[in-house]
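notes to self, project folder thing:

trying the whole complex as one job this time. last attempt i did each chain seperately and stitching them together was a nightmare. two parts in total, labels are on each line so i dont mix them up again. if this works i'll redo the older ones the same way
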Amino acid sequence: MKREKGRNGGIGRFLANPGVISVSVVILGFLCGTFLIVAVGKKPSGMYTALLQTLTGFDITRGTWNPRYIGEWLTASMPLILSGLSMGFAARAGLFNIGAEGQYIVGLTVAQFMALFFPPIPVLHWVAAVAAAGLAGALWGGIVGWLKAKFAVSEVVATIMLNYVAFFGSRWASMQIPGANTYRTPNFPATARLTSPLFEKLTNGSRLSLGLWVALLACLIYWFVIEKTKLGFELRATGLNKNAARYAGIKVTRSITVSMLLAGMFAGLAGAVVALGSFGYGRVLGGYDNYGFNGIAVALIGNNTAGGTLLAGLLFGMLASAQPLMQSRPIPKEITLIISGLVVIFISMRAGVKLILDWQAKKSARLRKEAGNE
Amino acid sequence: MNSLIAMIPSVLMIVSPILITATGGMICERSGVVNIALEGLMGIGAFTAATAHYFLESSTPFSVWIAIAAAGFAGLLASLIHAFAAITLNADQTVSGTGINLLATGGTTFLAQIIFKMERTAPFKLGMMPGAGGIYPTAWVALVIVIIAWFLLYKRPFGMRLRACGEHPQAAASAGIDVRKTRYIAVMASGLLAGIAGGCLVLTQTIQYTIYTINGAGFIALAAVSFGRWLPKGIAASSLLFGTAVALSIYMVNIQSLRFLPSEFFSVLPYLITLITLVIFSGKEYAPRASGQPYERSGS
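result (full assembly):
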């Protein structure tokens, strides 16, 4: 009797743990994806060998090893981690930042301009470009926070509209650069690039860049601000209960604006990392890169914590960089998008898991009571 | 002036899908469920309609309408995911809506790869034919839909109950209204309408479905709902405004005297106008009070 009670509580606590929910949701997403591949008459092994090759560089179908795949995996993860931090930071203050895509684009565009027009001084050049991109993203996000705080404009609709504004604005601005055509600008000077000869050597010529340090540093900053500062405390209080925070003397308007500012900064940094790390020239965007939108899934899986977002970013980076490998084996690469979408939907059902647990707890309590009466 | 009159059919062509979707969004939010999946549901509808029409157009003259019906059905089915998550499982409605948007992009392209062996549907030969005055029938469909929605919401007991669920679900429940069932119907209606709208869009404005077909129309419809203050005549006016902005952005590129402006300026206009009107006419007090909040049965 006593033992059974303890076991029930244990399972309940186990399932209520956010980390456990994230892992099970991811597994569930993969299961659905696998089922879908089978349903359309393809072999799911193609997906898993592609994922294995991305993670370890080992091609099990040919028995070859190439660390370049590991480098590309980390490269794809960096902007996802950063935009996940962007989404997560806003979520901690109770905001839903669908605008990471726009803030990413603004950061990317400013980084490209800095790369082409800032004097080519070693180190200072790329540092300035990365910083400017973060600042520009912060401003773009801050506008939304300010509109939300001041005019109660829904941040969801506002950020979506600003995504389009950023996209078309970026296209227009980038095409004004002398020597630019409809898809690219001239090459950047070497001093603007984030490339690292060491990383290149280690990963057999992948595009892995110093952006890795930017992403890791951003995780550290995120953790420090959220967990260890007064600002972070105020943001979290605002997110948990706006009215209570207001009565406690927290300036809610300021908290909302600041949280969107910092969220925008992380997304802007993602733009810089992609622009200066993965490309040697400025791009005139032809469509969304989708890092911002995928950041939503990353933050949700990572439970809006720094460590969780890091891991989730690596997971989605793996899905993204495995896409070309899947396409060649021949699995439609959109399966990764489907898995992300499913994972987000499952995560949204978290509240439902709690409902079911409560219901079960009630049922077992009733059973126990009945047993006691007998 | 003449050129402005000549623009009317294309304005209506663009407004219709936005208005149909916004009507669904309004019904959904009035029952207390926020549906930001409208964009994705439109995409699912557009994909279904484009596929159905491609296979049927040579065999039946009613292919267009069958395609639109199929699109509505597909939208309805997909909206059930949102309904189940948001209503039965008390999910965060914004999050589950975002999930459906991701799923719609991935799912439609995935199916296109399976069916057509490429990342879009194969182009159909002939879309919907415009009727009298060069106006597509979709304009009349949209008009009928918004009038029916108004009639149901304001002239029938069901509509009153639905609105009560969005204002104060606990009170509605104590008056004997099945809040969950009502909300399910509302979400399914929004899925049906968004699907139909996606079908109308793809059959009037283009010749195939790609991931760029919808291009924010669903989000614009979402903005039209709040700018139209959750009222049928309000969303009709706001959809007309936003649709005109989109039509103008396409049209103005070809005006000689405006050539000095870059084409991106025109592309960005509809989104900018939407944003600015939202700021000017912002204010939460018009929104259904319980919109976006899960309804939890107390007691039991």
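what i see at first glance: The two ends of chain B are 65 Å apart (CA to CA).
need to look closer tmrw
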